[in-house]
User: Fold this.
Amino acid sequence: MAKIGNLVQEAAAFLQHTVVAIPTETVYGLAGNALDPMRVAEIFKVKSRPFFDPLIVHVASYTQLSALITDFPAPLKKLADAFWPGPLTLLLPRSARIPDLTCSGLPEAAFRMPAHPLVQELLDILDFPLAAPSANPFGYVSPTKAEHVQAQLGTLIPYILDGGPCRVGLESTIVGMVANKPTIFRLGGLSQEAIERIIGPVNVQLNQSSDPRAPGMLKSHYSPRKSILTGNLDLLLQRYADDNPVLLVFHEFRADFPRDRQLQLSLDGTDSSAAARLFDLLRQADDFPANRILAEFAPNTGLGKAINDRLRRASDNP
Ligand code: TXA
Ligand code: MG
Assistant:
């Protein structure tokens, strides 16, 4: 199994010749030198990820970023200034220093300045940026705790840098330019409303499973192993109440169903609490002695949109 520790120097030493798991404020990442095709290939292999699905490059600073891009469109720069470091990934024209494998040969690569203090320290002492997809096997729920990574990739990597539970809990929101218009490609830990407060209305293009720009948005992504149905719990219970389900309620427990078979997504009713707990609860529901998971949608505003997006992609009735 992987060693779990919180020593940035130890993680940095491994990163000279292999890949390790790192904490970020969104989800745990499986990190390697973004500029070394050998390390990037290792990431794809450990994750069983197809090469057509490009990786996000994590940078420490604008200085490091400037050598990796050829342009920084003004609306995206405004977003970076407002939200970096944070749960925002930007698609930017890449310089020749980014290997084709890192970005699947696309003219743009994905960049993010993460906010977790341990990964910031790590990036500061490395002399290369880190490519890091979420540290889960391809197609499964993203990890938000070191133990999630250990359970799934522990035999394949030497070290997990443990930064505690991820504060945000949803992957970063991805924004790029399409025909000069800022466009959201993946809803995530930064809400559309927060983005629009800075740069005005943006386009949203989420379902492009045939488009090479959107491989991470494959329809059945983020799936648990157990059957999961999402929607109105009244309707779902009419049909499945007797089929030994476990419920994922947004906040209010149901009075008409055993309390010990209900998992509460948001502790206080807010979208941020629900986001931080979503992937951990999907794993708990997956391990629960039940035949299926019935999940309720979040209110569809703020981070609720990204939560519902993940629930839909995880479910059997998208
Ligand atoms: O919060 C996050 O973004 C986490 C942490 C570890 O930073 N990372 C993450 O990576 O979620 P991953 O690989 O699971 O999802 C990244 C997605 C890809 O699936 C792909 O859809 C998109 O980012 N992407 C990456 N590079 C791209 C590019 N050049 N053009 C279009 N989409 C790209
Ligand atoms: Mg992922």
The chain is about 30% helix and 20% strand.
